[in-house]
Amino acid sequence: MKIATFNINGIKARVTALTDWLDEAQPDVVLCQEIKSVDEAFPREPFDERGYNVETHGQKGFNGVAILSKHPLEDVMRGLPGDETDEQARWIEATVVGEHDALRLCGLYLPNGNPAPGPKYDYKLAWMERLEARARALLAAEMPAMMAGDYNVIPQPEDVHDPKAWEDDALYLPQTRAAFHRVVNLGFTDAFRVRNAAPAQYTFWDYQANAWPRNKGIRIDHMLLSPQAADMLVDCRIDKEIRDRDKPSDHVPVWVELDL
DNA sequence: ATGACTTGAGCATCAAGA
């Protein structure tokens, strides 16, 4: 089963770019971030036509996550547990059933956190604590699970074109990376890194200052696998070519092939 | 260089992104 994560930066502006990529890449499941739409306004038809079930967790203007799946989605859960007052739409979970096994899938859009320090950075760190708690619960269930999406975390120096330029940024601060590694170190596998050890493998390039042609990117979209899911990993790649097309998102898709 | 682009909201500009 081919499962992808893709921060699309606005579903209404990205329908053509997304459907073109779906038709080529033929993923079974796509976790989308930054749909920037309320649920009622999400354009379902292009995805219905292609055989995808659509589950959304949106809000007006910003954030918002969704799952597109050619397989049925069960037990859909919206919102990251741990703070009833949090109104930002950044988490969606569902179970997808494969040929041999079922997989618990979590699509996430982790807060950016800039400027740091400040209230936005406090929110990011608090959100990451809730993420760690959810990750522990998923591991305790001992079923295959994947948490994938836009983490807004640059894990290591080799994941950024110029580490020096990012050292005060909320995506790369030591506290941010430590919080990310605390989650990984519970027993998750960074699917891309176990399949590709090369530096400078990016998933985001800013629209500004010719970042893409200069390859001034960062790797912030990640797919973390529980031990049971890691045993199913066949491949993981970044579809960076589509950053070259008309009206691209500033992120590109990352996908895994799982023997599920 | 706190710049440059892009999106959504909503109709002139501004917030937010990373």
From TrEMBL:
CDD domains in the cross-refs: ExoIII-like_AP-endo (cd09086)
GO BP, one annotated term: DNA repair
Active site, per annotation: 109, 150, 251
Name this protein carries in UniProt: Exodeoxyribonuclease-3
Residues the record marks as site: Important for catalytic activity: 221
Signal peptide: none
Keywords recorded for this protein, A-Z: Hydrolase, Magnesium, Manganese, Metal-binding
GO molecular function: DNA binding; double-stranded DNA 3'-5' DNA exonuclease activity; endonuclease activity; metal ion binding
